[in-house]
Give the backbone structure.
Amino acid sequence: MNEPDENQRIAACLGGDVEAFSELVDRHRDAVYNLAYRLCGNSAAAEDVAQETFIRAYRRLRQYRTAFPFRNWVLGICANMARSQYRRWRRKRQLEQDYAEAEALEREPDANPAGLDPARRSALERALATLPVSLRAPIVLRYMEGMSVADVAAALGLRESATKMRLARGRAKLAETLRADRGGDAS
Amino acid sequence: MKSEHAPGTDAPDGPADPCLELAQLRRAAPPGFTARVLRRLPPGRPAMRRLWPEGWQWAAPALAGAAAALIAVFGLPGLRPAGPATGLVVVQFELHAPDAEQVELVGDFTDWQRDRIRLEGPDESGHWTARVELPEGRHEYIFLVDGRRWITDPLAPAHRPDGFGNLNAVMNL
């Protein structure tokens, strides 16, 4: 459900109040950017996709239904745009995702230096980047954004049962990749 | 199948479950992001309706137009106009959902709000129906089953992506 003032802001946007839209962007930009970053694998593409997401949301604001949380709606737009971007990227470059993405992620500046220890953080980044996009998107929304399974399903246009299955497979694959990573480090 | 667990709670793998650590990797949007978005917004209010859609989306309106032309010539079972003189058309909506407990109709004519139009049913054959009086013109709608599943009307003359993974049904009255 939207926060109480969110529908008012949306109504103000429809009346041409750009300032109201900037408040919506401020509120949801981190969630959108984080999803775009995780699906695209680098900050330049993520910023591009995140910006395009909000521009498309603004253009299509009249199609938005207040029965849906606004955040789910923009995250759904973002997921679709990031997937398209990713497919284009793969078609153009003909590269496998895992190594290039993992390398790109490792070059990114540390966004949370006070959190995990660097080795664990790096291993998690690599493991997340090697998940297929179809598993990565639900994992990001569920565990990084703290969304409910129902909201993840709504944002990604999936059934709840399919979302649960993807989450379970994503978790299992993450754990498996991290175990393999530890094994490789130890040898 | 493995069960799902809520973020922030104890996970099957214990405190080292990687999913519980993922939130610490969350990336914030870079500084100045909002200003850059605002600079790129199209001037004026959000679009009323684009004259020509982006990319390949032209296919949906084109098909809708073709379907509307066919309907105009041959008519459509299930859509029964009451007559052009009133400016309103009575439309019979129908969905086969024998296992549903509740079916709602949501569309531009409800401002995409829920709880405005509920279908009656199911009948012996599992069909839910509603008769709704609508203004002439183009309408988009979708069914909401049990308050959580969006179902596109398979009987609609045309469909159009709604921007977040579902298809709206499109009809021209």
Remarks:
- The longest helix of chain B spans residues 59-74.
- Residues 8-15 of chain B have pLDDT under 50 and may be disordered.
- The beta strands of chain B are 88-96, 103-107, 117-118, 127-135, 138-145, 149-151, 158-161, 167-172.
